[in-house]
Structures are given as structure tokens and as C-alpha cells.
Write a structure and sequence with these properties.
With about 500 residues, the chain is α/β, with parallel strands linked by helices. The protein contains 16 helices and 20 strands. The protein folds into 2 domains: about 280 residues, Aldehyde Dehydrogenase, Chain A, domain 1; about 190 residues, Aldehyde Dehydrogenase, Chain A, domain 2 (3-Layer(aba) Sandwich), CATH 3.40.309.10. The structure holds nicotinamide-adenine-dinucleotide. Nicotinamide-adenine-dinucleotide (NAD) binds next to α8 and α9.
Amino acid sequence: MHSSAFGATAAIAPEADILKSVQGGLYINGSWKESAGQKRFAVHDPSTEAELMQIADASVSDALAALESASNAQPVWAARPPRERGEILRTAFEMLIAQADEFATLIALEMGKSVRDAHGEVAYAAEFLRWFSEETVRIHGRYQLAPNGKLQHIIAKKAVGPCLLITPWNFPLAMITRKVGPAVAAGCTMLLKPAQLTPLTASRFVSLMHNAGLPAGVLNFLPAVKSSEIVNALMADSRLKKVSFTGSTRVGKLILKNASANVLRTSMELGGNAPFIVFEDADLDAAVDGAMQAKLRNIGQACTAANRFYIHETIVDDFTDRLRQKFSALRLGRAVSDPDIIGPLISASARKDVHGMVLDAVDRRARLITGGELQEGPGYFYPPTILSDVPDEARVMREEIFGPVAPIQSFVEEDEVLKRANSSEYGLASYVYTRDLDRTLRIRAKLEAGMLGVNAGVISDPVAPFGGVKHSGLGREGGFEGIEEYLSTQYTAINSRQ
Ligand code: NAD
């Protein structure tokens, strides 16, 4: 047993038993079924490249059948007492905690992160269910008298309606509960389209929601290879009322464009390019520990991952050397049963992209401090890598890296580093290490980012609003704000004769 960053333990469950527990079908209107064309696709272990199992591949007709069921279930579901919806979420929370070992093993198997990181994800994912089980009974409207004293206003919140939830592979469970939790709490029915690379955890979670008592039609499950076909067909159908997407900025923009035809409500959790700024007065040990977490959690494949390191010129050599020692001590390998190991990237193409960015930086005269060599297969491993003296034009500074690569630059003045930190189209997470309170408050006001960690390398918390500005997205998940994404406001003006 090992403690994780989220305080969870790192026990594992037998792999073969876990896979047998996964339903390989689609889940539509409360039952599991094969796809209309009996098609299936394979899911692989990124550590070995071996096939784990096959899962049904939804077609457009399956997707439309799922929408029909979500649309039929919507009015009855929205009318269920909030306490009952909350209790389903509370039961799901308790079941997920009881099955933490099985879920963590499944996540580690299909996604490659260490079983310790996977346990952290399960704990984080479960908290969304608990938080929104509590929020279910706190959906408030308001009453007011019009200024002229004649009309009385009732302002009420209503469930938006059937929602399409599209999730990425890097957090195969938590990115789902972060949407399903508030959608259930608000009284929305759902169509879940998981990432094609990690549908097994999603499938087991859908079974869990079924066993927790979610009625037929409320949650439908559509794993698919041709995502765009089923997503476009669903978004073109006026019975769908909302799309909540977590994934890349590129695909998010396509979905936003398509959402305009039916003026769909949208929530967008997109890419990031987080700056990690360390000032000369910072606690250097804390900054290096924070950098390890912010860079290497999830093998660098997090939208909140520190992407650009800006270190004050008086401490940059010391910081780089300490980080190098920690990076060089890490072991790479299959992390399903070993919590202290760094797992693979998700795919061959992900590894090619990351390596291409490292080569681009070296071509532009960045110094390679550690890492940077392609590994022998099988498995899509890439070593933790540090680059220093990286020029602004290098791709690693401008693009989301999504791998264990830390590019470092030095800076002198606060204004100069703020300008560089803000010179990105993204604005999701950001990190600052300093002990100066006035500086912290100045930076908080000027940084263009949805989230800021001060002397903290992990900031995600289900009770806080997660989300970005600029090309990092629209809307917030978690916190009091999370449920608002699934509610619409209706105002009634009453002219009553008294
Ligand atoms: P992706 O955009 O490739 O895919 C995300 C989802 O969209 C998947 O389910 C995929 O099957 C589907 N999809 C892909 N193409 C589509 C299309 N044309 N039409 C409709 N659906 C389509 O992203 P990914 O590689 O799975 O995830 C990594 C990205 O997600 C990174 O950019 C990361 O920063 C981002 N992310 C953001 C957050 C956040 O909260 N802001 C959290 C996690 C990941």
C-alpha cells in the first residue's frame, strides 16, 4: 500500500478478472447491446501494445436510438425529487470508493498511468459524485418585486435537457464524473461518448451508475471509432440540448462551429500551456517538488501540466540541477502494478509528437539536460526530459507538449515574465512560487489564466471551479459553478391584482 497525491492507497486488482467485469456493449435505454452493425473495435495496453479486449462500435443509428431514449426519459427524470437524484449520486460515490482497486487497475491498464496516479484519479473522480450529490438539493432560484411594485418575478432554474458528454483519454474516469455528477444533479439525461482509446473504464462506470439505481434512458453509452460521425448526427438533431466537451482545442473549435446550427448550449474544457514561474524568494525545495507534480503527474499528459518553466536568473542553475537529479532517478516501465514507476505515453503518434517537439527545440539551440532519447518498444515510453535555454519560438514553448518534457527559460523582471506567461493563446492552469504576498496579488490580477496555484503544484479540486480562458475553453466544471452548466434560467413575470 502506498499513499498517493490525493491521499489514496495503491492496491491493485487481478487484471484478467477486471477485464471480465467490463461490459463490451453499448448501453441504451437501460440495457447493454451490440451495435446495429455488430461492429467492435480493439482497446490496447499502451505499455505492451497488446490488445486488452474488444468493445462495441456505435453507429449513427445507435446514437439516434440513444437520443430517443434520453429524450423520452428527460421529463420524468427532471421531475424526480432532487433528494432522490442526490441519493443515487451518493450511492454511486460509495460504490466507487468500494471498487477503487478495480477501477484504478482498469485505468492503469488502458491508459498506462501508474496505479498510484490511477488511485489518485479514482479518489478525485469519486469526489465529484459526492460534491454534486450534495448540490442536488441546493438548486436555487429567486423571487423579486419589480421596481414599479406591480409585477412579481419568479426566477427559476430548470434542467437544460439531453446532453452529449464527450470525454478524453487522459483521465478516463474523472473527466466523466465531472460531467455526469452535475448533469444527474441538475436532472439532465445524458449520452456519453468516451475516448476511443479508454472506453473500458467508462463502460465499468456506466455499469456502476446502473447498479446505483439510475433509471433507464438517463445515461446512455456510445463508444465509437468514428466519433465525428455520431457526434455530428447527434448535434444536428434538435432533441439534443447541450454538448459538454473535454479534449483538444482543435476538436473543441470544430464542435463549437457545429453547435451553432441548433444554437446548442456548450461547455468546453480544452487544451492548456501552463506557465510555471519561480521567483528568487521562493522556497526552492517546494518549487522543485511542485514542478515534479505539475510536470509528471499523468506522465505529463494533463491539461493542467506545467508546460513552460520560467525561473529567475539567480536560481535557474540550481533549480535545473535539482530537477535533473529527480528526473534522472525515475524508472520507466509498465506501471499497472508498480506505483513508483513512470508509464508510457498513450500512443505511438503521441510519442512521435513529443519527440518531434524535443528535436525542434534542440535544432533551435536549446540545451538537452537529460532525457530526449527514443526508447525501444514495445510500449510507447518516453523518458523524462529537461531542456534549458529554450527560445520563445520553440514548439515546446508555444504548443501543448502532453508528455514528460520540461523546457526552462530564465527571466529577470516580474513584468517581463508576466508578459511572456500571457503570450499564449491558452489560459488554463498557471503556477507561481514566491513568498511575497503583494507580488502574489499583482500576479493573480494580471495572469490570463482560469486557475492559479501559488506555491502549489496540484490545484484540481472538485469543490473549486475548473476551467480556462482564451482558447482553453468556456464554462467551469466542479465547485458551485459546475451545476450551472446544466441549468437554464426561466423568468416568470406575474401581474397580480391585489
Ligand atoms: P481529442 O480532442 O482528440 O478527443 C477528445 C474527445 O473528442 C474524444 O472522445 C474523441 O473521440 C472525440 N473526438 C475526436 N475528434 C472528434 C471530432 N472530429 N468530432 C467529435 N468528437 C471528436 O483530445 P484527447 O487527445 O482525447 O485529449 C487530450 C486533450 O484534452 C488535450 O488537449 C488536453 O489538454 C485536453 N484536456 C482538457 C481538459 C480540461 O479540463 N481543460 C482535461 C483533460 C484533457
